[in-house]
Write a structure and sequence with these properties.
FecR family protein; four-stranded antiparallel beta sheet; transmembrane helix; about 20% helix; 19-stranded mixed beta sheet; globular; alpha+beta; Ferrdict_sens_TM; FecR; FecR_C; Jelly Rolls
C-alpha cells in the first residue's frame, strides 16, 4: 500500500507522462485499496464513510471500464479518469480527501434557491465599425453581415475564417463574457480557444510580413506554421513571436501576473524591453506589480485543463481559485476572515453546478462558503 506521499509523487510522475507499466499498475492498485484513515472523517457533515467509499469505487470502476476494447483506448480512458472523471480527487495541504461528484451531501450554505449553472459556448463578434453580433444566435453556416460573408459557423462554439473573408481586410474582435468560451479558426488555419472573460482582435485575412493579433484574458493557440510570416501575439505588456507552435497566454487584468506557457515548439517573449526564449514545458511569468520576469516549468495538464472541461489547481491561493470560479460561473466573490496560506491542489469538472465545486473545497476544512443569489461569501 502506497503512503500518501508516495502516491502524490507517483501521481505527479503519471501526469508528466513518465510512468512505467508497473507504476501505472501501482496507481490502479492504490485506487482499488484506497484508505481514508489519514483524514478525520466527520460523518455528520460528510456522510457515511463506507457508503462514500463504495460509491466512489463504483463510479471510478465504471469510468475505467469505458472504451476498454483495446490497449490504446484503455490508456486514454485511464488518463481521462485520473484527470477529470466523475469522481473528483482533491489533494490538499494537510490531508488527502476523496469524494464523489454526484454525492447527495452538501456543505455550502445556500440562502436562496438560485441555481448557478456552469458556463458554456458563448461569444460576441465585434466588427471594426462597432457592430456587435451574438454568435449564439447565428445559425450554422456562412456568417453574412450587410451582404458580406465573413466567416462560417462550423458548429456550436466554433467560428472559422478563410477564403470567404477575401477582399478588403477588416479587423474583428471575438469576446467571451463571464461564463463563456469559444473556438476560432483564423484565416491562416491557426486554432484559437478563448476562456471566459477573454478576447482576441485579428484581421479577417493576413497580409504583410507578420500575422498580428491582440488578446486579453486567457487564450490557447495552435499556430499554423509559416516560416515566411511569423505569428505575433500582443497582450498586457508583452509580445510573443512564433512560427508554429502550441502555447497558452493568461493575461487577465485582475491577475497579478501574465503567464505564457509553451506546450510545443519555441517562442520568444518580449516583456518590458527584454526578450526570453521558451522551450516546451517552460513558461514566463511577468509580475505586474514588481515589473519582474521569471521562468519556470509547469505541468502541461494544468494548461490544457480548461479546454478539456475541468479546473486544475496546483498549490493555488483561495483567491486565485475563486477568480477562476467567478469567471466561469459568472458570480461575485467576497471574503471574510484570514485567507493567508490557504493553498489548494486538485482537479474538478467545470460542468457541475457551482455548489458542487464549493462542496469539494469545503472538505479541506480550511474554508466555508455561503451563497446569496449570485454572490459567494468565502469564510476562513
Amino acid at each position: 500500500m502506497l503512503t500518501k506521499e508516495e502516491y502524490i509523487k507517483l501521481y505527479e510522475k503519471y501526469i508528466a507522462g513518465h510512468c512505467s507499466a508497473e507504476e501505472l499498475s501501482q496507481l490502479q492498485d492504490y485506487q482499488d485499496k484506497f484508505q481514508l484513515e489519514e483524514t478525520i472523517w466527520d460523518e455528520e457533515a460528510m456522510g457515511d464513510k463506507a457508503d462514500v467509499k463504495a460509491r466512489l469505487y463504483a463510479r471510478l470502476h465504471r469510468e475505467m471500464q469505458t472504451d476498454n476494447d483495446n490497449q490504446a483506448t484503455y490508456w486514454k480512458s485511464m488518463r481521462k479518469w485520473w484527470g477529470y472523471a466523475a469522481a473528483a480527487i482533491l489533494l490538499v495541504i494537510g490531508g488527502l480527501y476523496w469524494l464523489v461528484a454526484d454525492k447527495d451531501t452538501s456543505f455550502v450554505d445556500k440562502t436562496e434557491t438560485i441555481v448557478i449553472a456552469p458556463g458554456g459556448d458563448n461569444a460576441i463578434l465585434v466588427l471594426d465599425d462597432g457592430t456587435e453580433v451574438s454568435l449564439n444566435e447565428l445559425h450554422l453556416g456562412n456568417v453574412t453581415i450587410n451582404g458580406k460573408v465573413w466567416a462560417n459557423k462550423a458548429g456550436e462554439g466554433e467560428l472559422r475564417y478563410g477564403e470567404m473573408a477575401e477582399g478588403e481586410i477588416r479587423y474583428h474582435t471575438i469576446r467571451t463574457p463571464r461564463g463563456g468560451q469559444y473556438q476560432v479558426i483564423l484565416a491562416d488555419g491557426t486554432k484559437v480557444w478563448l476562456n471566459a472573460s477573454s478576447s482576441i482582435r485579428f484581421p479577417t485575412a493576413f497580409i504583410g510580413t507578420e500575422r498580428l493579433v491582440e488578446i486579453e484574458g486567457e487564450v490557447f493557440f495552435d499556430v499554423q506554421k509559416d516560416t515566411e510570416k511569423p505569428f505575433v501575439v500582443k497582450s498586457d505588456n508583452q509580445e510573443i513571436t512564433v512560427l508554429g507552435t502550441q502555447f497558452n497566454v493568461m493575461a487577465y487584468p485582475d491577475e497579478e501576473g501574465v503567464k505564457t506557457s509553451l506546450i510545443e515548439g519555441k517562442v520568444a517573449v518580449d516583456i518590458a524591453g527584454s526578450s526570453y526564449t521558451l522551450r516546451p514545458g517552460e513558461r514566463s511569468v511577468y509580475d505586474k506589480t514588481k515589473r519582474q520576469v521569471t521562468k519556470e516549468t509547469f505541468d502541461p495538464e494544468e494548461i490544457l485543463a480548461w479546454q478539456e472541461g475541468y479546473f486544475m489547481f496546483n498549490e493555488e491561493s483561495i483567491e486565485h481559485v475563486m477568480r477562476k470560479i467567478a469567471r466561469w460561473y459568472d458570480v461575485e466573490v467576497e471574503y471574510k476572515g484570514n485567507m493567508k496560506g490557504k493553498l489548494f491542489s486538485g482537479t474538478v469538472s467545470r460542468f457541475g453546478q457551482v455548489d458542487e465545486v464549493l462542496d469539494m473545497l469545503e472538505l479541506t476544512g480550511t474554508v466555508t462558503f455561503k451563497i446569496e443569489g449570485r454572490r459567494i461569501l468565502v469564510m476562513g
